[in-house]
Amino acid sequence: MAKLVVLQQKQPSFSLLPASLSEFNGTRLHTQIQLKREVWKPKGALRISASSAKKILIMGGTRFIGLFLSRLLVKEGHQVTLFTRGKAPITQQLPGESEKDYADFSSKILHLKGDRKDFDFVKSSLSAEGFDVVYDINGREAVEVEPILDALPKLEQYIYCSSAGVYLKSDLLPHFETDAVDPKSRHKGKLETENLLESKGVNWTSIRPVYIYGPLNYNPVEEWFFHRLKAGRPIPVPNSGMQITQLGHVKDLARVFVQVLGNERASKEVFNISGEKYVTFDGLARACAKAAGFPEPEIIHYNPKEFDFGKKKAFPFRDQHFFASVDKAKSVLGWKPEFDLVEGLADSYNLDFGRGTFRKEADFYTDDLILGKSLVLT
After folding, report:
1. Which of 6, 99, 366, 375 is the most buried (most CB within 10 A)?
2. What is the pLDDT of residues 14-49, one digit of tens each?
3. Distance (Å) of CA 336 to CA 256, 264, 305, 326
4. Other C-beta atoms within 10 Å of 37: how many?
């Protein structure tokens, strides 16, 4: 039988790493200039109205979304267990989190160590423990979900983190939950999981975020811009820079995950979740600068077809319009994003990159290819 372990000892918090100070290797010298910023006050307190206490399993929970979600659930009095391989610390102190709050959280969180792809172990361990609710944060394939459902026949709710990437590319935007989906997308496993949950007749809810950002983001979304702003470099943006996209803050996402818990209106429903407003690529570059207190950036437009970047990714977003309506979540759940884009980017910068922490070192290889080529759009 799997053993549940109560974590009472403080785990190491995130490391403080020196920010990269790489400079543009060209004829122009871009100095590192940061404007004086207004005093920043944290926003987005982790709070939510409670439902009755549940025995909750989170598949994953130690990287990004789960860090904020698990705290909300514990604060509400739920018994929360993280199912992970144990390769990362089960808890870490969040940026800006008090020692008292972190100690309280660490003393209550539980851990079930295992590989979700070991289906026999999943079935035996979950059957032995029993859970009321499952939050599946890191599920990518339907085959990884079926053993969980088999192990928990009395499950009250399965809450799944899907993706707005399941939608079929369209000229008609924003995407709505009823839009056509793409069975060949790189997120097809998430789509197949939603179909499995529906076919099994369980009480499920699926959340489809667009691009997620916020402190501790392991995807180079806002961090990509912050690296270049800090180094005083131009921001290379593909084509016109008028492509429209959408970002949603991780704390707003965590709140909606809790709002669907035990909510009859969320039963067997899909919800798009992101920010209320859309933004162009150029606008995002300027928003990152404003949020972090840097001068307005120099933006360089280029034609991606003129370059061979190999396996390197020259820009962190898909080069197309991509955004979704969040009207359904607002009307059905009464949810509303707490952060606008600049506020959310400021929260991310001040609690993460601005402290000298980041997930990836700055890599300006593709930038230098772009800036060194004569075929630059004007």
Report:
1. 366
2. 332 333 323 333 333 343 444 445 545 566 544 444
3. 9, 18, 39, 9
4. 15
